[in-house]
Amino acid sequence: xxxxxxxxxxxxxxxxxxxxxxxxxxxxxxxxxxxxxxxxxxxxxxxxxxxxxxxxxxxxxxxxxxxxxxxxxxxxxxxxxxxxxxxxxxxxxxxxxxxxxxxxxxxxxxxxxxxxxxxxxxxxxxxxxxxxxxxxxxxxxxxxxxxxxxxxxxxxxxxxxxxxxxxxxxxxxxxxxxxxxxxxxxxxxxxxxxxxxxxxxxxxxxxxxxxxxxxxxxxxxxxxxxxxxxxxxxxxxxx
Amino acid sequence: xxxxxxxxxxxxxxxxxxxxxxxxxxxxxxxxxxxxxxxxxxxxxxxxxxxxxxxxxxxxxxxxxxxxxxxxxxxxxxxxxxxxxxxxxxxxxxxxxxxxxxxxxxxxxxxxxxxxxxxxxxxxxxxxxxxxxxxxxxxxxxxxxxxxxxxxxxxxxxxxxxxxxxxxxxxxxxxxxxxxxxxxxxxxxxxxxxxxxxxxxxxxxxxxxxxxxxxxxxxxxxxxxxxxxxxxxxxxxxx
DNA sequence: GCTTGACCCTGCCCCAGGGTCAGGGTTCGA
DNA sequence: TCGAACCCTGACCCTGGGGCAGGGTCAAGC
Lengths: 239, 239
Fold this sequence. Notes:
The structure is a homodimer.
Chain A (H helix, E strand, L loop, with lengths): L3 H8 L3 H9 L18 H15 L4 H8 L3 H31 L10 H13 L3 H17 L1 H14 L3 H13 L8 H18 L9 H10 L6 H11 L1
Chain A binds a DNA duplex through helix 2.
């Protein structure tokens, strides 16, 4: 006959946990000795190890209670199911480890793989970090609005980047961010941009990504989403 | 600017969880629109994904708060530590899977590997299941009293079992459990047992495991731990 | 015989990480 | 213009215990 402390240590749980299991009806209350202490037998130890094993597997205590006085077939089935859940949790934890590793840097955690690839391509092109942040945030917001559209548009934009003219325009717009709104290069840039759009339209290819909703989404996401020069550019192109 | 529902779906958490993170100060409260709705930016989405990633790794919310506004070096160190914990948890879950598999049968979960081997040997010898339960429960209780002693005694008992005389005695004591207390074979068995003990003692080998404390422990652990015939045997040997 | 430290008892409140419900107001698409 | 789907706050509930209070018990050493 052993005490609650010995029992708890045997099973590797706390005394408090044992009392908790009594309260929940998982473990039968044993006899008390003359001073009111609980006195346990080997059978209690066996029952407690079973409880602990199931609890460590993540089985809720309420279900452990049912399981322990279920018939062996039901127990076997339940164990198979619990084991399956365990395997899944292990897989999940492994995925979490991968994600954790990405937490220290990079955008892959926040955007789709396609968008991440797009951002990498822009980086390689020499686009400013400010502009890349802008792009990234735009894609994040787009995905919240419509993941499928965002995915499609990402692909389209990556195709567009094959076009050397588009690349040049993109880089120039990026550079123009910091220009003075009176910069004489702005009208020329606006003209080139408009011509490029018209060309594409004439060749009746897919319309480039310039959905106003998206533009608005992106624009409102950050204070740096516009600049005096860009505002001027927008007015010049809209005219 | 997105709503709380869109934000939550993006990060794969519930709306309630987002509000919870606000309350805990993990995620800054964003601006409200004219009707009091929270309006989020891409930066909030990024922050939320970070929070979720850490939370999924099992980091307590309070610590996540500290981590998010710690310097990058501290973050890197913390991530390494968290990843280590994650790896340990995966190993732990794997162990739990093994234990779970043993839950359906066998004693290996409850006794030391040595004691399990001893029980197997007894089974092979043809010892009754009742007696094996008795042995098992005895070892469980002994381990709660003194794991090292239990381990040593287990080894000694396994050595003893090599002795053919001891085996025969063990099996006869097992069989005697069900005899009538008046059975004429009892005195002879008691005599044989005593002779065997004396022989060992003369050869001054290690004293066999017959510590009274242990006997008492085992005896009190179960109602079937004694029988009329055994009681008689004990009296005969004690005389 | 007395003290000291390690146990044990019950009962209570506390924590994380939310879920759920109540009792509203808002927005949006058909 | 109406109903569905959102959003708001606040309050209570849940699991699996931890911690503490306030007290009783036991065994060892002096």
